[in-house]
Amino acid sequence: MAALQRVGMALVVVALVAITVPKIIAGTVEPSDTFVGATWSTGQGQLTKNENPLVPSASANASSYTLTWSTDVSAYESSSARLDGAVVGEKAFYVFLSSGEAWSVTWNTDGGVRVYVDDGYPWRERVRVSELGKGEHVITATVDGSTVVSATFTLGSTTVAAPSTTAVVSSTTTTSAVVTTSTTAVTTTSTSAVASSTTSAVATASASANASSYTLTWSTDVNAYESSSARLDGAVVGEKAFYVFLSSGEAWSVTWNTDGGVRVYVDDGYPWRERVRVSELGKGEHVITATVDGSTVVSATFTLGSTTVAAPSTTAVVSSTTTTSAVVTTTAAGPVVSGGVAVFPGDSLQAVVDAYPAGTTFVIKAGVHRRQQVVPKGGDVFVGESGAVLTGEGVTEYAFGAKSVSNVTIRGLVIEKYAAPVNQAAIRTFGGANNWTIEDNEIRYNLGSGIRSGGSGWRIIGNYLHHNQVYGVTGTGMSGLVVEGNEIAFNNYQGTAPGSAGGSKWSYTHGLVVRDNYVHDNVGNGLWTDGHNDGVIYEGNLAVNNTASGIQHEASCSAVIRNNTAIGNAFHTGAWLGAGIRVALSPDVEIYGNTVKNNANGITGVYAHRDNPDTWCPGPDGQHMLANLWVHDNTIIMPTGQSGVVANASYDQVFGSWNNRFDHNTYTIGNTAKPFEWQGDRTITEWLDYSQDTHSSFN
Prior knowledge:
Layout: E1 4-7, E2 10-13, E3 18-20, E4 23-25, E5 28-30, E6 34-36, E7 66-70, E8 81-82, E9 87-88, E10 92-98, E11 105-109, E12 116-117, E13 124-128, E14 135-143, E15 147-155, E16 168-170, E17 194-196, E18 215-219, E19 230-231, E20 236-237, E21 241-247, E22 254-258, E23 265-266, E24 273-277, E25 284-292, E26 296-304, E27 336-337, E28 340-343, H1 349-354, E29 361-364, E30 367-370, E31 381-384, E32 388-391, E33 400-402, E34 409-411, E35 414-416, E36 425-429, E37 437-439, E38 442-444, E39 449-453, E40 459-461, E41 464-466, E42 471-479, E43 482-484, E44 487-489, E45 502-510, E46 513-515, E47 518-520, E48 527-530, E49 533-534, E50 536-539, E51 542-544, E52 551-554, E53 559-562, E54 565-567, E55 581-584, E56 589-592, E57 595-597, E58 603-607, E59 630-632, E60 635-638, E61 643-647, E62 661-663, E63 666-669, E64 676-678, E65 681-682, H2 684-689, E66 697-698
Parallel strand pairs: 9-15, 20-26, 28-29, 29-31, 30-32, 31-34, 32-35, 33-36, 34-37, 35-38, 36-39, 37-40, 38-41, 39-42, 40-43, 41-44, 42-45, 43-46, 44-47, 45-49, 46-50, 47-51, 48-52, 50-53, 51-54, 52-55, 53-56, 54-57, 55-58, 56-59, 57-60, 58-61, 59-62, 60-63, 61-64, 63-66
Antiparallel strand pairs: 1-2, 3-6, 4-5, 7-8, 7-10, 10-13, 11-14, 12-13, 14-15, 16-17, 18-19, 18-21, 21-24, 22-25, 23-24, 25-26, 27-28, 64-65
């Protein structure tokens, strides 16, 4: 991605060359067209046919462009201000390249620090200022591989050095054991760890802002900042995931760490708030440390769960002093170790499994296990030591696969680079594989999907599912599936599966529960039930910056969608009224208690008539319906876009006897003259005349 590299203190422009890439044109691929720039992706917006491939124009130089900024994502040119020379006093903002059309833009700050959220528009990026600091910064945009545009701005009102965001952590005590590797710095655990960078002195508290100015609080509610959050110091946290808040006092730059170096946070652009992925910790006592504006250290000690056991390390691979793990073994049976049967790098995992009875626990030892593929036995448990990686190396089709094998547990592994077909996954099962538990794994960079489940009673808990080519998680033919506390991010990141890919997708399920997941930056829908799902519950999820809808329930039956937060979704979807929350062709859906903010559209219902009969859901005509949609008690913030119901023809029942209703909602509406859909675009007054939202408020 880098078009600029730092060499010493100088910036060097690296030339980008013309490359030949396939192009998506109405669902087909043409491999012959040539484009300039090496940072494109078919997932970054629509790649359309251009008979004259893009080349740098002699007239397109730096003076043709201006960098502007605004906190309003829609302010491109209309109300944005010049960034060069500006003092930016916001927590986060958007930067725009204007004017002039650009097909490829590579963004950088301060010569290499990438602090942008790529939303698919090359000419617009969202700046996460939590990774910068007060003072002067330079944003550089390299346009179409040839034109460099830059702007200097000041963040905040004072000029201080921006702290490093990749700090080496050292301890002021010597009571903890030291873990070392050949590639990482020494790390120690301390309740008073201090963050410092490799190039600057250890931070010290300033006289004007000290630790007593701040408090670390926590909640499972992302919106609970100060209002209802509790002190973290001394707390017992029994949740799978939670948010930690720095309150009170304004902070421009916060570097977060846990246990002296383990970073288990999801940066959402607000420096004073982070989401903790507890799957990378363990039960027992932990310390969270926040270094504020490079100088003030604030810490809190908390207990995860109800028992006190040592938290496993997640950053260091511990080398063995024996030769056992270094030797590639051909023995079928691994040695029995504390906790189960050891499987070392180089061992055949399948051979070890075959040598032991069903219900055995296998400990996958730290290190890289290459091209392993296993069909487990019923009741088998696979537990990864910290640093245990299963890699398919782009060759092996799957890591774990089975049919009619139940009660399998897979926990604590990194599973990557398996070459699954587009409709399969690195972990995959078929009919009769019941009661699997997939917990606290990182599943990444696989062809196909990360997890494909099939069976009843599954639990997919606390995993980090990212950068898989199709979905993070998918499945079909299930009952009682629980998907909880996962982070599902950047899936379909290459845009190789347009229209049927994204964060997740399920079909033919009964009683699916999707709870407390953080689903962001997927190319496609974030959370998606599509085709014959009944009794679905979506609750407590955070869906952010997915190119299609944040939560979509489609061609299915009853569902409850409650207490979710959807922000910045559906700006790059061809779907009709893509939205923060979208329901299509599904009866008996209740939507309440959600916060839906700054999406392409708010909450929408869509009926597109289908002639083919479908008796999965109850209905007088045996077809999917949009009936009994009940949208109430939500907070809907719509600077642009609409909420409401649409149909693809004059089906009066959609707007009458099918009983679709909105009420008791709280709206904040921008300048859209007709922010509602009901048999056409409607003003607020017209919407009320149709007896919709008669007890709601409009701001």
